[in-house]
Amino acid sequence: MTFEPIDRVASVPPSGIRKFFELAEEYDDIISLGVGEPDFAPPWAARDAAIASLERGQTSYTANRGMRELREQIAVDARERYGLDYDADEEILVTSGASEAVDLAFRAFLDHGDSVAIAQPCYVSYVPGARFTGAEVVDVPTRAADEFKLTREVLESSGAADAEVLVMCYPNNPTGATMTREELEPVAEFAREHDLLVFSDEIYSELSYEHDHASIATLPGMRERTVVFNGFSKAYAMTGLRLGYALAPPEATEAMNRIHQYTMLSAPTTAQYAAVEALDTCDDDVREMRAQYDRRRNFVLSRFEEMGIDCFPAAGAFYAFPECPWDDSDEFAEALLEEERVAVVPGDVFGAGGEGHLRVSYATSLSDLKTAMARIESFIS
Amino acid sequence: MSDREEILALLRENARYSTEDLARQTDLSESEVEAAVEALESEGVIKGYQAVVDWDKVEPERVRAAVELNVTLDRETGYDDIAERLAKFPEVQGLRLVSGDYDFAMEVEGDSMSQVSRFISEKVAPVPEITQTVTHYIMESYKERGVEFGDGHDDDRLSISP
Question: In this structure, are residues A363 and A37 in contact, taking their beta carbons and an 8 Å threshold?
């Protein structure tokens, strides 16, 4: 008897992020622009609520779907912010991070031999997560010329029409691209025409700098075919507290909850208390964080422009996705790390369409950004 | 946020940002930034730029006290008159009219406790309108003007993450 992983596990390569992480770990004096999480701590009121819940000993399981009070607040929040109207009892599932919700949707609705179209470049988990289910992945590479927005044209040319599910994420990690309601319309139309389910990861929804975030689920005929993922990691900087949620029609959350109740049981209780407080009282903190990110975004984009590095005006999340000055982005990122001690992530790590670009995270202090940009400037000149 | 508010927020965060860096962080050009800062200064919105100092780390140490003042007013003398008189003393670093149990909250700074005490008893208490002074010596500063004095937390995030 040996531990021989099954094919669909063995065939998924380790994350390219991992390789770069190990390289970066060799130095202790780097400035990292390679971090995919906020540099803020969660709002103090939310942390305080978590501490208070621990002091009261509120550490038992919650309802499978999450504490009722939290679901009710999520319902109000989603309606007020994005016009997403979901029932707290039947259409909201609180999960251990948005990642769990994505995985649940994959497992509940993808079968062996199913086909899933994934808009890329994208967060590193979607493709492996889909493969673990035995589904076939159809790469949908968005293009720099479209500012990495998903278009009807790339959906058609990539063969997404034959897929069962379309996975997308806007505001996007790693590109920082966002999509307006008008830009989402052709995507929605395509999904309706070809009868696709849409899994829309909107974890960066609070970090949209040029326009209000638009959810594809709010477009006509989309609610019934869409699962929206969101959570507290980005807006409230609660990454390690692991709390996310899915919004979907009753039959979808019911199926996802079927898996969730037997695997996770319920999302972390302490995090749920923090989240209730976050939604209740921390709007100002979110506003302040967003203002800070926006200033850094402006700074980074200005600096790239001054350096003559081509970078589209990324309007969301906390990433810029400039064109790599060298042909080989892997080689560039390694050399930059070695010679200038600045870490960025080569774009190809994030899948199709990412090659030739670099993911530059501005979730770091302005003084570090200043130094890092000066080093990049001296490196390329 | 208006351009003015944006500039103000940035300068409150770090008054030493260069014009160049202010412009890079906003949608404004350098000349627009200069004009906005100039306007804020000339209109008296920005009264000055100062370092936030942790005096515990400076030799010789400075002694500071928070002083509560109660006053009586009469037909000829209002709060402004008293405040103006007190604010002229270089020892007075801050002076605010406040609601509650006392009238003025005053911040006093000096070389030593005895100097501060002498200042209160010889210069402040004798002011005819002042009926009572309560002096609290500041023993430790944890936060000044939004800046925490602790060593802060190291960035313990993974150096690269998805």
Answer: yes
| 8 A C-beta contact, residue A245 and residue A65 | no
| Chain B residues within 8 A of A366 when measuring between CB atoms | 14, 21, 25
CA end-to-end distance (rounded Å), chain B: 31
Nearest Cβ partner of A35 from B14, B21, B161? B161
- pLDDT tens for chain A, residues 1 to 381: 899 999 999 999 988 888 889 999 999 899 999 999 999 999 999 999 999 999 999 999 999 999 999 999 999 999 999 999 999 999 999 999 999 999 999 999 999 999 999 999 999 999 999 999 999 999 999 999 999 999 999 999 999 999 999 999 999 999 999 999 999 999 999 999 999 999 999 999 999 999 999 999 999 999 999 999 999 999 999 999 999 999 999 999 999 999 999 999 999 999 999 999 999 999 999 999 999 999 999 999 999 999 999 999 999 999 999 999 999 999 999 999 999 999 999 999 999 999 999 999 999 999 999 999 999 999 998
Instruction: Please indicate, yes or no, whether residues A134 and A231 belong to a single structural domain of this protein.
Output: yes
Are residues A295 and B26, on separate chains, in Cβ contact within 8 Å?
A: yes
What phi, psi does A201 have (nearest 5°)?
Answer: -85, 110
ipTM: 0.85
Q: ∠ CA(A102), CA(A189), CA(A357), 5° rounding?
A: 55
Residue A137 lies in a domain: yes
A1 assigned to some structural domain? no
Tell whether B16 lies on the interface with A, counting CB pairs under 8 A. no
On whether the CB atoms of residues A115 and A138 are closer than 8 A, the answer is yes
The one-letter amino acid code at A224 reads E
- Asked if residue A51 belongs to a domain, the reply is yes
- Do both A272 and A318 map to the same domain? no
**A135/A35 same-domain check:** no
| Residues in A touching B158 (Cβ below 8 Å) | 21, 35
Q: Which domain holds residue A254?
A: 44-281
Q: Tell me, yes or no, whether A198 and A82 share the same domain.
A: yes
Q: Would you call B152 exposed, middle or buried from its count of C-beta atoms within 10 A (0-12, 13-18, 19+)?
A: exposed
